[in-house]
């Protein structure tokens, strides 16, 4: 996708601090961390919203969540972590390529 910053990161056109990559996802550090550890897990296929998920994408997202669970210790998140998926304007989504925020490395506030 043209002008998509995450597609450019996936293509290696702009740098990122990658911590994991396989054939269908990439995980890199968020440039403006909102927790001690703040990673972004990004499926390589470009789509912006869960509402665009067909069965194939749903299966991809399932595998993606499973992979995060498998990698939690490698990411330094053995004590727990939070996943966030911002969707649309009210959620403040700024990058319109679906991504999962992975937050942890400390106790996270939850009101
Ligand atoms: P969202 O608001 O859910 O769309 O989140 C987008 C996230 O991408 C924000 O937390 C940004 O800090 C992060 N971000 C934007 N550009 C980059 C980049 N070049 N490398 C790493 N993270 C980025
Ligand atoms: Zn994209």
Q: Nutshell version of this structure?
A:
This protein is an alpha+beta fold. It is 21% helix and 23% strand.
What does this structure look like?
The chain is of the alpha+beta class. The chain has 2 helices and 5 strands, in the order H-E-E-E-H-E-E. It has helices spanning 5-10, 55-71; strands at 18-21, 25-29, 37-43, 81-84, 100-104. The protein is globular and about 35 Å long. The mean pLDDT is 97. It binds adenosine monophosphate and zinc ion. Zinc ion binds at residues 1, 4, 6-7, 46, 97.
Characteristics:
111 residues; alpha+beta; five-stranded antiparallel sheet; 21% helix; 23% strand; binds adenosine monophosphate; binds zinc ion
Topology, element by element:
Elements: H1 5-10, E1 18-21, E2 25-29, E3 37-43, H2 55-71, E4 81-84, E5 100-104
Antiparallel strand pairs: 1-2, 2-3, 3-5, 4-5
Bound molecules: adenosine monophosphate (AMP) and zinc ion.
Zinc ion binds at residues 1, 4, 6-7, 46, 97.
């Amino acid at each position: 996708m043209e002008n998509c910053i995450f597609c450019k990161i996936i293509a290696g056109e702009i740098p990122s601090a990658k911590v994991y990559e396989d054939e269908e996802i990439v995980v890199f550090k968020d440039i403006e961390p909102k927790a001690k550890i703040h990673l972004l897990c990004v499926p390589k296929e470009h789509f912006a919203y869960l509402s665009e998920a067909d069965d194939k994408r749903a299966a991809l997202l399932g595998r993606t969540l499973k992979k995060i669970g498998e990698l939690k210790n490698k990411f330094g998140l053995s004590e727990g972590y939070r996943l966030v998926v911002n969707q649309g304007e009210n959620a403040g989504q700024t990058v319109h390529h679906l991504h999962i925020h992975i937050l942890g490395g400390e106790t996270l506030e939850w009101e």
